[in-house]
Amino acid sequence: MSVKRHYDREFVRTFFTSPTAVDGEDDSAKMLRSAGQLRGLQAPDVWVPDNEDATAPNMREEGVENIIEVVSEQGAEFPGEIHPRVVWHRESPTTRYQGFQQMLEITDPENGAVEHIDGFVIPEVGDIDDWKKADEFFTIIEHEHGLEEGSLSMSVIVESGEAELAMGDLREEMGKPSNNLERMFLLVDGEVDYTKDMRAMTPTGELPPWPELRHNTSRGASAAGLIAVDGPYDDIRDVEGYRERMKDNRAKGMTGIWSLTPGQVVEANTAPLPPKTGSWLLDVGGQEVELDAQDGKQVYDGDDLSLETDGEGGYVLQAGGDRLELDEDELTEELLDRTAYIPSMTDIVDSMEEFEAAKEAGKGAIAMTQAATLVIDGVEVEVSKDRMWDEATYQAAQTPITLFQDVYEHRPDQHEELAEMYGTDIVERATAVGN
């Protein structure tokens, strides 16, 4: 049985932080105002006015005032959720009290911002008792201001070994009468402080990739019915690296990622969505190369693989230092082993609709065929593979469609861009399939 979720969203793609007050500017809130005006694919699913690391300590009091002012003015029109980040530390009662005071001021109904505030992000948490301390402050704030209990969600940043271990306790603790941890929303990795807490070192001084932390956070979120978000990718010019990080994360079940710029927001908003067109991949020297679609054929145009006929009905395939002499069936089998297909949105919807129709007709499983004409050095080879679809296959294929449906439901500001990306017909079919 799946874990019950306590909020509307099932997916968060983007976690975008903005400094709450910039020193030396005529308008210290200018970055907040700019972020609050983002729309469409440039607007994040979760906007985090950051009154902790992104804002200098001497500017945080003004940062609270700026959050109140900007969210009061722009919050109603902002298309994503708004979750300010306040100060906190597992080892500092003083810092925790400061965070409580920041939340108390921001949520004061007389200040006009709380109706647009969805929750708060708590950094530097420790063991599960520390999470409960934060939760108790949320409850006090709700009682103090006459808000519905549990109306403010709590997200935490996992920045220590203590917090990582606490994720294993969360499922058992949520729902106990002594806390309101059902208010939990996001588990966000903070690899920079985590690296410091773990006393980790690399020869170059760069952050370790921490695949274990990302896996543990994704697992903790799945077990507790929450959403996992990866930490910041601070090389903002390395677009390909950002994409690879997100691809690796999605294989772990972690869809969301921290975004530091509107450009990263666009990348993170679009990367998890099914592609508009399908593509064939060919394994060449251990690397997957995307084939070029030309006139309905899939063309390899590299130098690391060659294919020619031997004049006697056979073929010679050269890959790296290997020279393979193959007949037609052996060649087809070899290329099938080397190819993979990335389905498009249309492919996924077509397959799901076909399986649904077969299930209606009383069939428990059907074969789906993928076929292509590969072209290597002008030599054409027909390849096809059958994949059995049963209920488990259907449900696995449904995840990207469920993501799309979640986005379509909660982000109407992106409807026009999604229709331009896929076409109106496939958008309509994608929102209906599986329901």
UniProtKB/TrEMBL annotation:
> Which Gene Ontology MF annotations are present?
catalytic activity; magnesium ion binding
Name the needed cofactors: Mg(2+)
Keywords of the record, alphabetical order, are: Magnesium, Metal-binding
Q: Which residues form the Malate synthase H C-terminal domain?
A: 280-395
Domain HpcH/HpaI aldolase/citrate lyase, chain residue ranges per copy: 115-256
**Annotated signal peptide:** none
Lineage, top-rank taxon, reads: Archaea
Q: What is this protein called?
A: Malate synthase
Provide the species name: Haloarcula hispanica
